[in-house]
Automatic annotation (TrEMBL), chain A:
Residues annotated as domain ABC transporter: 8-243, 260-507
Lineage: Bacteria, Pseudomonadati, Pseudomonadota, Alphaproteobacteria, Rhodobacterales
InterPro entries: AAA+_ATPase, ABC_carbohydrate_import_ATPase, ABC_transporter-like_ATP-bd, ABC_transporter-like_CS, P-loop_NTPase
Annotated membrane topology: Peripheral membrane protein
Main location: membrane
Domain of life the protein comes from: Bacteria
Stated name of the protein: ABC transporter ATP-binding protein
GO cellular component: plasma membrane
Similarity field: Belongs to the ABC transporter superfamily.
Record organism: Antarcticimicrobium sediminis
UniProtKB/TrEMBL annotation, chain B:
InterPro entries given in the database record: ABC_transp_permease
Subcellular location: Cell membrane
Listed GO MF terms: transmembrane transporter activity
Name this protein carries in UniProt: ABC transporter permease
Keywords: Cell membrane, Membrane, Transmembrane, Transmembrane helix
Species lineage: Bacteria, Pseudomonadati, Pseudomonadota, Alphaproteobacteria, Rhodobacterales
Organism: Antarcticimicrobium sediminis
Cellular component, GO, one term: plasma membrane
UniProt topology in membrane: Multi-pass membrane protein
Domain of life: Bacteria
Entry's transmembrane regions: 12-33, 53-75, 87-104, 110-128, 140-160, 199-220, 240-264, 302-323, 329-348
Amino acid sequence: MSDTSPAIELRGISKAFGPVQANKDISIRVMPGTIHGIIGENGAGKSTLMSILYGFYKADAGEVFINGRKTEIPDSQAAISAGIGMVFQHFKLVETFTVLENVILGAEEGRLLRPSLARARKVLAELAVEYELNVDPDARIDQIGVGMQQRVEILKALYRQADILILDEPTGVLTPPEADHLFRILDNLRAEGKTIILITHKLREIMDITDTVSVMRRGEMTATVKTAETTPEELAELMVGRKVLLRVDKAPATPGKMVLEVKNLRVRDDQRVERVKGVDLNLRAGEILGIAGVAGNGQSELLEVLGGMRPATGTVTLNGTTLKLEGRGSDGQSRRAAGIAHVPEDRQREGLIMEFHAWENVAFGYHHDPAFCRGPLMVNAALVRDTEAKMEKFDVRPPDPALAAKNFSGGNQQKIVVAREIERNPDLLLVGQPTRGVDIGAIEFIHKQIVALRDQGAAVLLVSVELDEILALSDRIAVMFDGRLMGERLPDQTDERELGLLMAGVSGAAA
Amino acid sequence: MDKMPKWADVVLIPLISLILAAALSALVILGIGEDPVAAVKMMVSGALGSTYGWGYTLYYATNFMFTGLAVAVAFHARLFNIGGEGQAMLGGLGVALMCLYVPWPHWSLALIGATTLAALFGAAWAMIPAWLQAKRGSHIVITTIMFNFIASAVLNYVLVNLMRPKGSMDPATARFPEAAHLPTLHDLLAPLGISFSKAAPANVSLLVAVAACILVWLLIWRTRLGYEIRAYGHSETGALYAGISPVKITMITMLISGGLAGMMAINNVMGEAERLVLNATEGAGFIGIAVALMGRSHPFGVFLAAILFGFLYQGGAELALWTSIPRELIVVIQALVILFTGALDNMVRMPLEKLFLSLRRART
């Protein structure tokens, strides 16, 4: 070991939320001028640990040392003065302010804005040169892209003289080229002696950029290793606690009759902005069509229209029958009756009622099914039995039908939704982000179920922002950008680079 | 994991809130130089010490059950119906029309007719704000409040200009005919050999209110409609996903809510006054909000909370009658109960949750 003290050292940090032990006796040393990755499944306690470091939560036990000195961090102000900057997964920017105004927000000096703004403009210009962090200081936040917005967050931290930068899942909203740019910035920051903590659940990012990596599982730090001395497989095993399949085993598709035909579909969002701008697609029985794209390019709206949650114009035919697209967007019942099942993108806001029991959620959307009803009444006993059967088949833990949905982990919540929809044996399954916030073990399981449904002859429309998932599951891949489909690729004839360019709207990328 | 056992949520928190409100009220009574212990004794004996007192307590409680249920049903769809007052006024109009202009052969038929029209009138009055909310996005809190004032003005006009008997100086309808008079608890209990005060206004509507509590429970927790209402209340996007129409649920829920509030009129108008007077509701529509809050929007909780508020009303009236504690102070005491049980819920809840968590951790 060198004689320099670590930039950050945590000793024996523990934190419990009620009966849940989010962090258990965690110790970690991050040397200055390095990038330290923290990897773990959702709910492993990564964000809790960082929130303690940033003063959002108070640890039940343990100590924090910054540059070798014991430091109390009761609030974020203390974290900032200790030189810690945080870039959150969801940006904390004022959308109607300019970049400059956002940078000085909370760090204004004096009563008048003008001197602070002038100073910030100078500092920003210097930072831009030093770290490739170019942003137009006078652009308004709502007029720049997410990649830019993230740079503003980094600039905010640097402007407050942060030496330690924490980034929480920074690439979740970025296209691959934007992510590459971010990593170049991080490289520059490291070269200038800044210390960076990168929280992620993507193994590839860890392998690409970090110097050391710590793995968290169920609130505990299971290992800290030098990145150069490990492999993705080893890290995955450390995360999950057992060997995992990183690939999906599936036979080639045998497409059957045409199930879904979409012609010139146009959709407006709640603000009347056109989000889907003329989409055509075909989907046959027994195949999975994956739609890749950066979040916010119209994929969500496409799914919502097909699921009956949003009105649209154009024509959609299912098994030769034309679906009703106009109306107020509450056609979920007729869509289900027509043979469409829908695993929505956001299980907590759409797919489940978090306060409902598991058995109530198993009826959700199918509460008019005669099997569950007697006249206007619902037959709760029948539902509980049905839920028990589904929980066993889909290995939902704990297998307690009376537990409220909010008390299951993300993976088990998703299994409840997937069980409900797949067990309907639909002709068409709509799947949005099936494994977002789901642990690796459950991802494997859910992927298998989707492939099994395909093999039974269902058509599957998969929307995901995870390229790995799209590549692993799809029989055909379409990329969506700015409300349009950018052409189709076959998974074995394309790669992440080509898809990444398509996702960024570069259409000449055809190989 | 839930933070507390269910009994603590349902029983302990309201109880502690009540004790806090009572303690603060005692301090206020001390402050004006009266004896709080004597005041409590007087309230208890005045409200619960005789069948006369019980008769009034239950009479008020009947009002509050209807309006409390009205608010509770709407709460389940996350709609805040503050218009119970106006809906109950319109319900009164429905009762008066039925009782005055239909020659009823028997009170039981009159009760069915009056209940139906009261519910229809109340529902109709709730329908306009509901429609404005569902279709136009006008906030239902604002519109239902405004509709209370409109209802009051409508009743004023109807009573003064249309329904006032010729020559009467009183803005009220004529007395309802004998056949439309509801039996009081005295009449109902006498055949069973139980003597009950003849003067107290509690009447057969109490049974209707209890039946309404049971039916609302069935509706919310056993029917598909109740399932849809609760789902919509928890998550609007979730409801959309499940194919539950927000417009439909908003309309139906508010119609049920308004109907329940309107039904209150069979108690105060038909059962007690036996004619329709100005301001017959006397704020019961607003007390319904406190009752629903305290009863956690559960029909059984509403039932208990309604009796508690009935007790406060009747006990308070006794206090004002027999001591120098002014009428206004009674309102202060009632307000404290509402404040603690409704608005300051978290003040009691948070420390209690912490306590239960540390207890649980100590055990494991």
